[in-house]
Amino acid sequence: xxxxxxxxxYRRHWAHKFGPAPFLPMSREEMDALGWDACDIILVTGDAxxxxxxxxxxxxxxxxxxxxxxxxxxAQPDWRSSEDFTRLGRPNLYFGVTAGNMDSMVNRxxxxxxxxxxxxxxxxxxxxxxxxxxxxxxxxxxxxxxKDVPIVIxxxxxxxxxxxxxxxxxxxVRRSILFDSRADILLYGNAERAIVxxxxxxxxxxxxxxIRDLRGTAFVRKRVPEGWTVLDSSSIDExxxxxxxxxxxxxxxxQPSPQVGREQTPGSVSNGxxQPSPQAVRGQGSPSPACGGxxxxxxxxxxxxxxPRDLNQTRxxxxxxxxxxxxxxxxxxxxxxxxxxxxxxxxxxxxxxxxHGDRELWVNPPPQPLTxxxxxxxxELPYQRVPHPAYGNARIPAYEMIRFSVNIMRGCFGGxxxxxxxxxxxxxxxxxSEESILREIEQIRDRTPGFTGVVSDLGGPTANMWRxxxxxxxxxxxxxxxxxxxxxxxxxxxxxxxxxVRLYRKARALPGVKKVLIAxxxxxxxxxxTPEYVRELVTHHVGGYLKIAPEHTExxxxxxxxxxxxxxxxxxxxxxxxxxxxxxxxxxxxPYFIAAHPGTSDEDMLRLALWLKRHGFRADQVQAFLxxxxxxxxxxxxxxxxxxxxxxxxxxxVVSPRGHRQRRLHKAFLRYHDPENxxxxxxxxxxxxxxxxxxxxxxxxxxxxxxxxxxxxxxxKTGRPFRTQHSRAESxxxxxxxxxxxxxxx
Length: 746
Description:
By secondary structure, this protein is α/β, with parallel strands linked by helices. Among the domains are: 14-219, Response regulator (Rossmann fold); 223-238 and 278-357, no CATH class; 603-625 and 659-746, no CATH class. 28% of the residues lie in helices and 12% in strands. It contains 23 helices and 23 strands. The strands form six sheets. The protein has a twelve-stranded mixed sheet with strand order 2-1-3-4-7-8-14-13-12-9-11-10, sandwiched between helices. A three-stranded parallel sheet has the order 21-22-23. Strands 5-6 form a two-stranded antiparallel ribbon. Strand 22, helix 20 and strand 23 (623-624) form a beta-alpha-beta unit. The radius of gyration is 26 Å and the shape is globular. Residues 235-297 and 713-746 have low confidence and may be disordered.
């Protein structure tokens, strides 16, 4: 892996003489008070401006300020006209646009596409303060306000839409967000490296349309430039039988025996050995029709089934199937999704190209992870750690949740198929130093209003991946596994959590700190590898309840989620109960589960409900699967194929609970104890041949009687039968009704 330039080694822009601003200005009056005649960069965000390192725009703004640029913020502008986008004047360099810390569609709608009434990132928790698809709308308004100012988009909403993607809310495949927003460049992932380099190059006078070599960026160009080798990834294996695939995450797929009497399609992606092809290596000319057509210039086009030894990885680009192809062919969509995820390791990823009409979407390899000194310095920039004074005493729930917490790392190597953390932040863990973390705790103690001595969290995307890395950097740079912990923990992963134990001990020993809680999601499959960590956690850092997420109990759904089996949960619970008893504490595990995930049958949910009843769990909140853009689980949802292994026309089919009524049934199984769900469950149990579970005994799931005042209406009395996974699912468009997802967000 190449050594990137240190983030803070650039010569600072001349405007550094103004010094850091108390708050990045949100009005012309604040700019005047700072002595600024203009902003160099204006950041537009869908969140309220909280000057805290847990808020993306504050981090990007302070990082750019440390480079010497004058940075202003337009937070939650009125998008109905361009007027609000002119409040800080014309930026000298560019507009930076993001939807905020959350995807605007996930923020606005539940998993059943019902509108939420709240928004934790808005003063007063008021919903509706940002538009749907905020990055697109904000970019259009910026262009209307100042037509010739470059537009740079980023954040999780843009990051997860960098290629053609399935949109759950419209039930269709949309183009890359670059085309709809008409932005000049997209920065994906944690974008500090790219945005610092981009800003300095723009400040030096380089036109934005010539900046094409930054990692972690995507942009639109007319054609593949000369001197590049194109690897064709769009060929799908010829339909046939499905070969056994015991480990879909191994580095090399199993080699099946040749099938007699069948010829291989030239240039196809195959589970078998490479086959010679007349189109394997070509010079000047057009790509195959499967690549989307059009001239390439002076390029080499190479099939993925052949890997010439003379390939230069830095001058090699992988061609994904064109937008029009993935739009019309779900199998090609699943294939493209798999290739995107396999090309996600900064150590070996190649650039990607995807044709959209007569233009090419180009995605450079992911950014190199930040070093510990760089991450320390980012978190120690002069944040005020409170919301901007313009909000007065208004309550911002997202800030209240994190104001006494400390982010100790970035990234996640879990690779859960439904989660966007790995897709956005990467699999390589980026750590802060112990000293920097302890200094931030002291800052919270000394500067944050309302601190009572309780640190609410030391964590990040996960609670216990701090300082966990691959044992060999060379192996890490070559790895293409989708997860370091599934189907089992990689033998090359260092799982020693004793450094984290020592950090916990030092944190709670600080003067003025009474207690340190751990609230981030815990990877219990890793935790059990260091029993002393579990002892430390249970004895000192659990406030009575510990939330963990086994997500399901059945192997079918778990294999599609890339989550460990329920036996690992049992191992963790044994340690949890043992150490709680030793500490003399009455503490409980609160498990979370997902309903209606791809690959989940009605029978799977019934078995999960019986497990919950047997263990005495009664879920207060229910999370239904939400197909977020670009995730592997969403590819399953849309295509009906499993992209966790090589995608073929005849490969494993994945059935998803798509109809609103079936999704409601799956959520009802998780809340089997709610009388409102009993009529629905009774009818489903009868249909499934499990009427023996209806009764008033302990072995029964639901009673025969219905309490007064609860819903007694029968499901399915609409003149047509209730449809299950044994029949074709009805339209996924929900009917209007009561919100049933409990409001839980991931």
